[in-house]
Amino acid sequence: NAGVMQNPRHLVRRRGQEARLRCSPMKGHSHVYWYRQLPEEGLKFMVYLQKENIIDESGMPKERFSAEFPKEGPSILRIQQVVRGDSAAYFCASSANRGETQYFGPGTRLLVL
Amino acid sequence: ILNVEQSPQSLHVQEGDSTNFTCSFPSSNFYALHWYRWETAKSPEALFVMTLNGDEKKKGRISATLNTKEGYSYLYIKGSQPEDSATYLCASRLGDYKLSFGAGTTVTVRA
After folding, report:
1. Sign of the CA dihedral A85, A102, B20, B40?
2. Under a CB-based contact definition with an 8 Å cutoff, are residues A78 and A71 in contact?
3. CB neighbours of A61 closer than 8 A, spacing ≥ 6?
4. pLDDT digits over B19-73, tens only?
5. How would residue A41 be classed by pLDDT, with cut points 50, 70 and 90?
6. Which residues, including other chains, have CB under 8 Å from residue B111's CB and lie 6 or more apart?
7. Which ranges constitute the DSSP H helices of B17-105?
8. Is the dihedral angle over the CA atoms A1, A23, B104, A113 positive or is it negative?
9. Distance CA B15, CA B79 (A)
């Protein structure tokens, strides 16, 4: 049973470009969570999605960031018009049900030049 | 305690020695305490989920205790081995799903 998959593992973007980060949850998991780790900081909650629905996006910046988890396909975290401050590691986790153990992917490391 | 704090930030231990480190978290509105083991370039691996005061969990040579009244958890590694080298993350669960992480304790086991 494959774990949580994230791609790409590394992403380089220039200021003003768009970044798309993908997350495929573990098989049978319909709950997805995105976390961000800024340099020298711990993982910070961004958004919680359950198939086709955003449940809680309280940790996501109000502008330029969006997330989706369509009926078919991976969850996508989209950052428009990236700035240097968006450089971070973005982690996705999934769980079978709300409140259960979250299993993490290996992360996508975004570097904005 | 307003945030989840872990100490020390890093530690070095000789192979065969035992070690432990701390996670402090807000004791009010406590739901659960999670421990993860994170090796560089890999996914954080779930170790334990603890909910009850006095809980004690064990997985091989690694064990953890929980004190919800005073807001701390200890993680112990007995007879450290080089493969135990990793960053150990703790996270307090705020409600049903939101995890609030500490910055981690990086353990380096010297052969």
Report:
1. negative
2. no
3. none
4. 999 999 998 888 999 999 999 889 999 999 999 999 999 999 999 999 999 999 9
5. confident
6. B15, B82
7. none
8. positive
9. 7
CB contact under 8 Å between B97 and A48, yes or no, is yes
Q: Are B80 and B63 in contact (CB under 8 A)?
A: no
Structure tokens, A11: 């992403």
Cβ pair A102:B43 closer than 8 A? no
At A28, the amino acid letter reads G
Task: Scan for tokens 């010297």, then name that residue.
Answer: B110
User: Most B CBs within 10 Å: which of A35, A38, A43, as the mutation test of the B interface?
Assistant: A43
SS3 B75: strand
CB-side exposure of A104: number of CA atoms within 13 Å?
Answer: 26
Token reading at B84: 């135990």
Using alpha carbons only, how large is chain B's radius of gyration in Å? Answer: 13
**What is the C-alpha to C-alpha distance for residues A105 and A70, in angstroms, rounded to an integer?**
19
